[in-house]
Amino acid sequence: MSVVRYEFIKKCKQTGARLGRVHTPHGSFDTPAFMPVGTQATVKGMSPAELKEIESQIILSNTYHLYMRPGREIVKEAGGLHGFMNWDRPILTDSGGFQVFSLSDFTSIKEEGVTFKSHIDGSKHFISPETAIQIQNDLGADIIMAFDECIPYPCEFDYAKKSLERTTRWAKRCKEAHKNTDKQALFGIIQGGTYKELRIQSAHEILEIDFPGYALGGLSVGEPAEEMYAMLECTVPLMPEDKPRYLMGVGSPDYLVEGAIRGIDMFDCVLPTRIGRNGTIMTSRGKIIVRDAKYARDFSPMDPECDCYACRNFTRAYIRHLLKANEVLGIRLTTWHNLRFLLNLMKKVRQAIMEDRLADFRKEFFTNYGYIKG
Prior knowledge:
Blueprint: E1 5-11, E2 18-24, E3 27-31, E4 33-36, H1 48-53, E5 59-62, H2 63-68, H3 72-77, H4 80-85, E6 91-94, H5 97-103, E7 107-110, E8 113-117, E9 124-127, H6 129-139, E10 143-145, H7 157-177, E11 185-190, H8 196-209, E12 214-216, H9 225-235, E13 245-247, H10 253-261, E14 266-269, H11 271-277, E15 280-283, E16 286-289, H12 309-313, H13 316-324, H14 328-354, H15 358-369
Parallel strand pairs: 4-14, 5-6, 6-10, 10-11, 11-12, 12-13, 13-14
Antiparallel strand pairs: 1-2, 2-3, 7-8, 8-9, 15-16
């Protein structure tokens, strides 16, 4: 039995979305779940205690960045990521594949692995599927990911097919290289771009390898929302009912709700922290740019319906002042709020599933947020 286990709780009668719980060596988390991204072994601007206050049950860290700095050896010496960053709840690490292909000015892909240049100092590095797993074994996250190629959008059919087949071969090598099976669960990644037949082919190939969980990669990379939803609709029904389903790199409110309706259990994205640092906040009535001049004398909370520390204690006018003055507290408060907003959104989604009213919740939320007019 895998050290990471999915527990099914309920299916929504309105939508078919599922409510569940994932059990890991460092505790359990409820699904559907949004995972804040702690790229450098920290969620930018947030302490572990603050993450717990906003009810973050699991976070994600990035293999590529931690391999570059401070290095896997240091993290391992510290007792793994949990000890290094003082986080006693579940952690997931991605394989670094996305960053290898997206951040490097030079990338050479061969069957053995990928040669690339560091985005920090230009030094040359090589990562194979085996290396990616060894690094993640040293980092010690509860859930680790197979090394895959994340193709761009758009991508020609022939290359997408060639890429997914290499990802399958790499996935087999990752499973063979994974040593900490008593402490970590290795998830496989389904690829195939925006081609239905390739997604189905990849799903069959990756599922045949038999992982304790499965992810959908290569989506939310620039394709229209309708294409992403179409890929979910043709792939998710092929994924096992008794294992977690993870949609990588997705974090906008509409994608979270729509993904949950289509059977996804886990999501992650840098969106809430990134836009927060730029002064954009998500509210129950849609996004606002709190840096704008019209909020200079707005003494209301960022979101009157939010219960986070920032909204309970500070006004839009004050936070705008902090951002304009380049005060660190400003971006801490916008980050705090955005993360709480998405975590609370998923809590409401779970409650709506439990009460068989997720379709009704979707309509109400989308109307208030501005996705549906009228």
